[in-house]
Each structure stands twice: as structure tokens, then as C-alpha cells.
Amino acid sequence: NATPHGIPATLIPGDGIGPEIVDVAVRVFDALGSPFAWETQQAGLNALEKSGDLLPAETLDSIRRTGLALKGPLTTPVGGGFRSVNVRLREAFQLYANVRPARTIIPGRYDKIDLVLVRENLEGLYVGHEHYVPIGGDPHAVAMATGINTRAGSRRIARFAFDYAVRNQRRKVTIVHKANVLKALTGMFLETAKEVGLDYADRLEYDDRIVDACAMQLVLNPWQFDVIVSTNLFGDILSDQIAGLVGGLGMAPGANIGEDAAIFEAVHGSAPDIAGKGLANPSALLLAGALMLDHVGKPAQAQKLRDAIDAVLATDSGRTADLGGGASTSKFGDLLIERLRG
Ligand code: NAD
């Protein structure tokens, strides 16, 4: 089912609102004259129902071949020992960098926010090395978790963040850590990232912050930050905080990037409460599509898409219900396509 010409890219409709917003994305990308030739593949709950696997081999093969995917949200069934498909994808393709830009589109609590969080995606406290130690009659008397940061992994994510900053004409990188307490685990991350920063000192400013102070500063004066690079756990928390500064997860795109593959997605989930009702806001997925265009060297098309999204969202009639408007999912798509063609 691949379109014959263009850059092959895997398209995963996903679950819940996924197919509705992916449908809009495909129509919008057509109107934009996007370079992608989509290869539609399944993952998530609907894949489990059809093939007995949340992440079928054909889907993995397709991503291995294309090295690129735009992914709708996936429902992870609760219980039954299911591992998150997102974590499986990250590990399968060694997607070590998670990039989450946050930009004010609709002025709200904070105006003129323009931040990018780069999170290490494979190491730290999320490696899943956890166990209990029994004492007396209590099998769960003590819980333990091991965090693992490697110098190579820290260097790789720091280099990614500094390169990203240079490529995107950013001015500063802030290294976020907790080296005063987790002296080995995040001290090594800080030391390594600072060493990497020296190589960029002629082009970029860089500094560092302890994570708790950074969280407070993000609320008091977020404009002082530009690109933030952090370890897995801190990056996870701060990236949602940053999404909150610009109106929540509904507007937040994310990219998971490795050496051989990159997967682009909305940060939100499958929203089962509104699935099938035409209420879903496709903005986050479309903004993820813009990141994907940047990634394949099409920044002009990416910017055209972002400008069109901004313009439609600037009108009351262009907003979906989550933003207090009356536009349906497909109506939002129609307005965007009109703007792109106009
Ligand atoms: P959710 O993000 O799906 O929904 C939270 C709230 O935000 C809901 O009220 C929902 O209606 C609303 N919402 C989310 N996206 C929206 C959009 N585009 N437009 C309008 N409203 C939107 O989070 P949840 O309910 O905690 O999770 C539901 C399922 O999604 C779970 O199975 C979870 O595992 C999965 N999930 C998947 C991903 C992913 O694939 N990347 C991420 C998060 C959650």
C-alpha cells in the first residue's frame, strides 16, 4: 500500500483517536505536497486484535526499511504483562534522543515560549533494573532500582543536543542534572555534557542547573531557557512541565531519534473518551509531522505547515473543542488544507 514516489515512511494509525488524526495528517500532507510515500502498518490494540501482537513483525520490518515513522497514539492494555509498545520501539531502534519542542501558539498562561527539551531516552533510572528485598515476613520490605548512565550514552545525547542547537539557530544549551546528590549517576552526565559543550563554545552559550531549581525557574522565568538537555527521568518530567507552559499535551509533538531510525508522534495518548466523535485535535500529530519534515531536510515545508497551523488556530472557528472551539477534527483539517492551497 505504499505510494509509488517519494521518501518511504511508515505510517501507524494507532488506536482510539489515532486513525482520525492520522487521516487528517495524510490529507494535510497531500495538500502540502509532502515528500513522503506512506507505508501503512498496524501497532497497538488493533494490531493485537488482528495478529495477536501489539507490535507485529511487519511493522518492525517496515520501520527498519524506511527508517522513518509517523505514529498515532497506541493504547497499552492494562495488566496481562504487556510492555509499553513505545518502550519496545525505543529499544528496538535504539532511539536514544527524545526531542520535545514547546512553543506558544495560543497565548495563555505564558506568552512567547519557545523551548526545546532533549531527553536521553534509553538509560538512567528507566532501564528497568528493579527488585525487592524481603525482610522477615515481608517479601517487599525494601524496593531497589538501579540507574545506569554510560559515558558514551551521555556524550551521544549531549552531542545530539548541541548539534540540534547549532542546526536550529538556537542560542543556549542548559544541562540539567542532580550532581550534588546523585554524584556518580548524574555527575558523570554533567561532566561529560560540559566537555562536549567546550567543542561548541565558539557557537553556543551553555550552562547547567540542578533539576529542582530548573523546575522552579521554568515556572518563574521560562524565557531564560532555550534548549535543555537532561537524563531520562528528569527529561520525562520536565518535558511534560514544558508542555504545560504552552497549553498542555494536546499541542505537544515529540520525536524519538536514533542513528538508523526516527519515530515522530503526538505526546498525548489514544484518548478513548473522545474516540470516534470527531472531537480530537490533530495539531500535535501535525506538529510532529513538521518535525519529520525538518528531519528529512525539508525545513521550508515544515515551516509552511507550522505557519498554517498557527493561522488556523488563531481563528475561533478553527479550534477544536479541547481549545474551546467548535471545529470538528475533519473541519480543522479542511481549514488547514484551504489555507495551504490558498
Ligand atoms: P490521553 O492523552 O489519551 O488523554 C488524556 C485527556 O486528554 C483525555 O481527556 C483526552 O480526551 C484528552 N486528549 C488527548 N489527546 C487529545 C487530542 N488530540 N484532542 C483532544 N483531546 C485530547 O491519556 P490517557 O487517557 O492517560 O491514556 C489513554 C491511552 O493512551 C492509554 O492506553 C495510554 O497507555 C495511551 N498512551 C499512549 C501514548 C503514545 O502512544 N505515545 C502516550 C500516552 C498515553
TrEMBL record:
One of its GO terms (biological process) is isocitrate metabolic process. Gene3D superfamilies: Isopropylmalate Dehydrogenase (3.40.718.10). It comes from the Bacteria. One of its GO terms (molecular function) is NAD binding. Residues 8-336 form the Isopropylmalate dehydrogenase-like domain. Keywords: Oxidoreductase. The keyword Oxidoreductase applies. Belongs to the isocitrate and isopropylmalate dehydrogenases family. This is Isocitrate dehydrogenase. It comes from Oxalicibacterium solurbis. The lineage of its organism: Bacteria, Pseudomonadati, Pseudomonadota, Betaproteobacteria, Burkholderiales.
